[in-house]
């Protein structure tokens, strides 16, 4: 790397520069696109020292940021841009907008990387200023996936999580591809849980990186929901009723969560698996779920036992020449297991038919987060379970 420094020619005796005279520093270097170069500029004079850090993003566009939705800077996608916060918005945020004109829906992916000393977050809004996606991890990268189906204007707001710690640079890459239908992205497209064990992956397809499941629960029955995931992850679980109201949750620290819930009436419920930290596979276990809709094992054993005993009896009678008696026993006794099967299956059907199919809730709300550690908080939760601070 070479540099040429043109010092101001009229600096009077090294004390002050007056009138202000700019000086130019030329640095040249050949690097591939995508390289991030950081360097410090130190200025020293006999009486003062000044130091400033810079980060350069090679191969990206610098955008003059907007200070509001109305003044959002227009960009075109796909794009890689760089910028700095604090921006001109009221809380140090910046506003960008882009137009999506495709006829067919797209999956937009936004990758925001910033200085590890700061924490920047990102919100995506549609043309009616409705929030459609957010990225607010505590790691120095936000990856947001957005499904854009309606052509028109979209807005991106990049803001510092902590206003007092907002000085830093970012690089943002926006790419898109034809939309793929994503199950689990919302209440409406929730994945149906069918058995005791469900395996999934986070980050998920929802606007907040979570994933939604739906499940039919019987009134008056207490269910246990157990969530486990890999080391270095911290996933949480939130349960909603058919109208999207949160009814139970578990958001403790660590890789395990357990929550019990006993619905007062039978119906469709939703389960959201939330990512607080890390990524990877999780296992959701609901002991006994799904089995109740089948015939319990003990009944099957009983039926097998009856069949075996009757068969032996009939065989013995048959061998002794009492064919008619054997036939009579067969007729009467084999009705018993069929009767049991009939009664059990009738009981099952009653539970299922009392479940009413209701329209899925469509509202998407930005979830309540801990203002200190960004943990997803449960309804009416007063103390953050992750950082232990009072939150309301
Ligand atoms: Zn917290």
Walkthrough of the structure:
The chain has helices at 297-319, 323-333, 335-353, and strands spanning 2-5, 25-28, 36-44, 49-57, 61-62, 73-74, 79-85, 94-100, 106-114, 120-125, 131-135, 141-148, 152-160, 168-178, 191-192, 197-202, 211-217, 223-229, 234-240, 246-250, 256-261, 267-277, 280-285. With 392 residues, the protein is mostly beta strands. It folds into four domains: 2-57, no CATH class; 61-178, Jelly Rolls (Sandwich), CATH 2.60.120; 191-291, Jelly Rolls, CATH 2.60.120.380; 294-353. The strands form six sheets. It has a five-stranded mixed beta sheet with strand order 5-7-14-9-12, with no helix packed on it. A five-stranded mixed beta sheet has the order 6-8-13-10-11, with no helix packed on it. A hairpin with a 5-residue loop joins strand 19 and strand 20 (246-250). The chain is elongated, with a radius of gyration of 32 Å. Mean pLDDT is 83; it is low at 9-18 and 348-356. Bound molecules: zinc ion. The site of zinc ion has 8 residues, from loops.
CATH class of the largest domain: Mainly Beta
Spell the H/E element sequence. EEEEEEEEEEEEEEEEEEEEEEEHHH
Helix proportion of residues, in percent?
10-25%
Unreliable stretches (pLDDT < 50, length at least 5) are 9-18, 348-356
Number of domains: 4
CATH topology grouping of the largest domain: Jelly Rolls
Strand count, sense and barrel status of the largest sheet are: 5 strands, mixed
